[in-house]
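Page 37, continued from 36.
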């Protein structure tokens, strides 16, 4: 597995078939890159920088460029909270999320920090946020949108970093690639420009027949595949319970029960760019 995965990465992360090992609740080859022979001296990451610079709690959240909720929004997180364990769901559906694995203060809690649009969450490589809310994905219709600043993962500077992980749908960054699984399908695609350590928007959509991946408002990958996505009893941001933990930041996550259109994705990115 390790040799195959590395070949994908070095080839620029295009994979033309479902990845082996992809399935419900399983992230492709997580951990395989932990021992990959990357040259850290030349890797385009500076992990000495404080990715979670002290949050500026005196700055009020900015609504500029933030996504809106509509009839297809299942959950929407701006992460504008300055403190506390609760991450408000702004969709009106009551799917609030929690720092860490429980509502107690714990080492697994990500940090409230400046985001791309208002507040965000910083993850140190051993942290998650979770929501216990259930979601049903109708007829394979699915969209996950997020802003991410990827600096690596607990698997290394090119490791898998989970952005969104539900029972039957996952979206992750890995070096210069996006990984996704929906139902029994999965693919490593892209590339987005994660390797510069800057904020980027990503989006994954499925209309039940085609899965599209977007980076910074532009479609970067397409897979003609029928997806059947089972219901989710809950979901995580920033990692799985024991692996694929993000080093970096997340902001502005929206989950929808429809395939957002290319124009919607592009407009959302353009709106963010227009913000100071
Ligand atoms: Ca907690």
């Amino acid at each position: 597995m390790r040799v195959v995965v590395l070949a994908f990465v070095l080839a620029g992360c295009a994979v033309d078939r479902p990845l082996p090992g992809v399935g419900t609740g399983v992230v492709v080859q997580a951990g395989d890159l932990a021992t990959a022979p990357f040259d850290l001296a030349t890797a385009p990451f500076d992990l000495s920088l404080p990715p979670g610079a002290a949050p500026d709690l005196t700055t009020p959240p900015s609504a500029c460029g933030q996504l809106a909720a509509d009839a297809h929004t299942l959950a929407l997180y701006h992460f504008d909270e300055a403190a506390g364990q609760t991450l408000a769901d702004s969709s009106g559906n009551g799917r609030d999320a929690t720092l860490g694995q429980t509502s107690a203060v714990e080492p697994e809690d990500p940090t409230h920090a400046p985001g791309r649009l208002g507040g965000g969450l910083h993850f140190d490589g051993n942290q998650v946020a979770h929501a216990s809310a259930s979601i049903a994905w109708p007829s394979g219709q699915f969209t996950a949108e997020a802003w991410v600043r990827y600096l690596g993962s607990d698997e290394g500077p090119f490791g898998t970093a989970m952005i969104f992980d539900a029972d039957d749908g996952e979206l992750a960054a890995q070096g210069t690639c996006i990984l996704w699984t929906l139902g029994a399908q999965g693919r490593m695609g892209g590339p987005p420009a994660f390797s510069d350590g800057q904020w980027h928007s990503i989006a994954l959509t499925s209309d039940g027949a085609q899965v599209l991946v977007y980076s910074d408002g532009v479609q970067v990958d397409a897979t003609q595949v029928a997806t059947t996505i089972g219901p989710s009893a809950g979901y995580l941001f920033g990692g799985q319970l024991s692996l694929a933990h993000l080093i970096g930041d997340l902001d502005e996550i929206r989950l929808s029960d429809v395939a957002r259109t290319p124009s919607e994705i592009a407009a959302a990115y353009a709106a963010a760019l227009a913000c100071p």
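The two ends are 44 Å apart (CA to CA). Flag for discussion at group meeting. The longest strand covers residues 141-153.
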